[in-house]
Amino acid sequence: YPLWLGVGLLVFLYTLVLVRSRRRFLRVELTASTLVQGSTRLPTSQVSGVRPADEDHYGIRVLGDGPVVPRRHGPVVLRLSDGTRAVAWARDADGLRRALEDLLRTRATS
Question: pTM higher than 0.70 for the full model?
Fold first, then answer.
């Protein structure tokens, strides 16, 4: 009986670590002032353009904590105000691109 409690505790702890790390490193949040990708915060004032990703997004800096776009997430290429490009990502890449375009349109009209 104590052995099964120990096994159950180990499985619980392993699952807890997995869930917490996924929530931390795969977090995507867009507000009027900030785009959050994992633990990277990018002020939206630095975003000057958005385009859908194509084959040219390889080799561009990926926002977030990893060197590549996470698995099962789609890329969105951002043009930054300093002229560089960066790759944002989300499960719904088209939704993120539309939200960023709306944000840029709203910023341009105000």
Answer: yes
Residue 110 CA to residue 64 CA, distance in Å, equals 29
What digits encode the pLDDT tens for the residues 23-75?
778 899 999 999 999 989 999 999 999 987 777 778 899 999 888 888 899 99
Cβ count within 10 A of residue 26:
19
66-to-9, 59, 69 alpha-carbon distances in Å: 30, 13, 7
For 8, 30, 39, 46, 73, the CA distances from 36, given in Å and listed in that order, are 35, 6, 7, 13, 15
Q: Residues with Cβ < 8 Å from 51, sequence gap 6 or more?
A: 76, 77, 79, 97
